[in-house]
Amino acid sequence: MGFTTSNWQIVWAALNLANVFASLVMGYVGDKIGRIRTTAWIGGLGCAITVFAMYYGSVLFGTNMLAAIVPAMLFGITLGAYVPLSAIVPTLAPDQKGSAVAILNLGAGLSNFAGPLVVTLFLGSVASPAWSGSSWGSTSCRSCSPSSCVPARSRRRLKALPHSRAVTSRFPGRWGPLR
After folding, report:
1. 0.85 exceeded by the pTM?
2. pLDDT single digits (tens) 8-66
């Protein structure tokens, strides 16, 4: 796809900027049209559409920054539609509101923590060569995952291993084998 790391940082900054303002607005939208409708239709359907727009915008238009920033900002806006989820979850378990919100926060935090690691572990087995220059292929997943902490000498040895052994011994000596 051809974007540099600094280009992707600009795209992600635009996404997060749009998300901050959309998060403020989506609370009001949830009050007007309903929290579940906001989360399901704007959040769920909107994110599904805009994540594909982010990928195919880059595929169709190459390294055009505008073609990358516009879908990223739309994704940030639709991602903000999940704000009413914090009000929906406690109503699902009225007797255990604290536990319900704790599980919601655990899910959000754990996905941010484990997501890049999971993608890093499985990207080589499922990714197409077209992803090699995208943020999924090089910038965000590999730069923020624990594999980036492994010395280059160890990474070269891991790449030389057969795939099944590389997955089970991705971080030898650090966390032990992953089984």
Report:
1. no
2. 899 999 999 999 999 999 989 999 999 999 999 999 999 999 999 988 988 898 888 99
* 10, part of any domain: yes
**What CA–CA distance (Å, rounded) separates 74 from 69?**
9
End-to-end CA distance of the chain: 34
Cα 163 to Cα 161: distance, rounded to the nearest angstrom = 6
Question: Does the residue 165 lie in any domain?
Answer: no
Residue 110 in any domain: the answer is yes
Q: Judge whether 149 lies within some domain.
A: no
Listed residue (54, 46, 45, 52) closest to 15, CA to CA? 54
